[in-house]
Design a protein that fits this description.
- The chain has 175 residues and is mainly α.
- The protein contains seven helices and two strands; from the N terminus they run αββαααααα.
- The protein has a two-stranded antiparallel sheet with strand order 1-2.
- The radius of gyration is 25 Å and the shape is elongated.
Amino acid sequence: IRNHGKLLLVILGIALLAFILGDFLTSGSSFFNKNSQTVAEIADEDIHINDYLAAVDQLTEVYKVETQRDPDDETRFALREEAWKTLVMDKTLSLQAEEIGMSVTADELTNLCLGATPHPVLTQSSLFLDENKQFSKAKLENFLNAINQEPETPEQAEYIEQLKRIWKYWENYVR
């Protein structure tokens, strides 16, 4: 080792440099590896981690508003599972609907949300139940009026944005 110390240091240096470069080129950089953000592929369409995390966040937000409490660990797991199932179902159904040329028009969506018999996801929401735990169309209409009003304070603006995200979730679910 004493006689060949410099050679040993050069070999170790080259090995360390090769290790660092190898890690950088294979898994450490999304610049070289764009697929590191893809968690699944359905019918040649990538599902990115950000799409999944956004779906989990949206479902968690709906849960918080519906129950007026934060989810525990078991509920968080169930919400992640439900978000994944919903994401997969949305992708597969939208592809199949697109193939056959099926779509939901704005009028049909309005009828499904505000018509004579609104969709069950709306009629079962705690936000739209009266004191007798019955669906109240007036509460639904008040909700829609509330999300379309101009906010007076930053806190109110944040709350209205939260309600808009929840309404978007319900609309997508009904669609």
